[in-house]
Amino acid sequence: MEEDKSGNSLQTAGTDGKKRNISYFYEPTIGDYYYGRSHPMKPHKIRMAHSLIVGYELDKSMEICKPYEATPKDIAKFHSDDYVEFLSAVSPESLSDHKRFNVGTEDCPVFEGLFEFCQASAGGSIGAATKLNRGDADIALNWAGGLNHAKKCEASGFCYVNDIVLGILELLKDHQRVLYVDIDVHHGDGVEEAFLTTNRVMTVSFHKFGNYFPWTGHLKDIGKGTGKNYALNVPLDDGIDNESFKGLFRPIIGKVVQVYQPEAVVLQCGADSLSGDRLGCFNLSIKGHADCLRYLRSFNVPLMVLGGGGYTIRNVARCWCYETAIAVGADEKLDNNLPAGNKYMEYFGPDNILHFETSRMENKNSAEDLEKLRNSLLERLTKMVHAPSVQFQERPHTTEPPAEEEEDMDER
Is 175 designated active site? Predict the structure, then answer.
């Protein structure tokens, strides 16, 4: 740590030798939810990742928590009452009600157990925030979370309930400033929009920009009102590789942390930025993607780690397993040969290894353009107000998940 002129501590990347307390949220039925045969969103990827995590015995280094079911009242802390009421009642049989709130579309279909899926995802992120608020965990993971496109009154981009916003709202009960970082290939529009006018949450999104969903996240989009300059967008072109991505991520996030001094960090690890993703267009390896988590972990700030996109599910599972290992500090111990006996081994054949080769796709981000982008963003950050303070009048009581549902799971 170093100090600014007022004597306040500034966070800097450390040696990262500290052992962390890790809470890992997992609902065993999460892989049963099914958007539809032709739909690219497959919750099964979360169950596949969990199987690898258990196979590598990473679960033995974490507290395993079954997420409580977020109630309609919990979800309505961000989403509108009529939208929550609709989501809780809609079913594949209620055909006449489809296509309200952008639900029932090709992207956001109605499927069996839709609301229960949302409750598990949101419950995991709220529970993760609660663990961090209490100091019961230094890092909390919820791979079923990270659904960054859902808006206050509508579904968007395969997302119905914005668990990230709900988790951040929980963190704000005990933390003055929360930093949100999004490395999904798609812009984190739902989260940015939710906190656009406040300086208590700073959003930073690295994403493909151009003729690409959700068509937002321009460099010039910086927030509004009190939140002006507290939204940071890093628009990228196709094919960005490990070296280029790291050359942006580390200096920009390092400066953000130094200037903003977050008391908690949320990292959305959308794995559609991996090479070869079914819907993505970036060229990151698992290690390149995971370096973002490694760097944020080094600041020793309470950290929530969430899933998100990722549509070549064998690679998503590999990635989130490896990032779980980074969270617990065991990544160097992982054998590249996947653990024998994994029941999803057919997905990883024929080589059955953890790390895969990236493609030879062209990196359309020139060194000159990346340097210009980096310098522009760093210059903007130097002009920000350092560590905006918030006067707490009264801190709301932290949400208390039912005790029996927060106990460690017996079945792993």
Answer: no
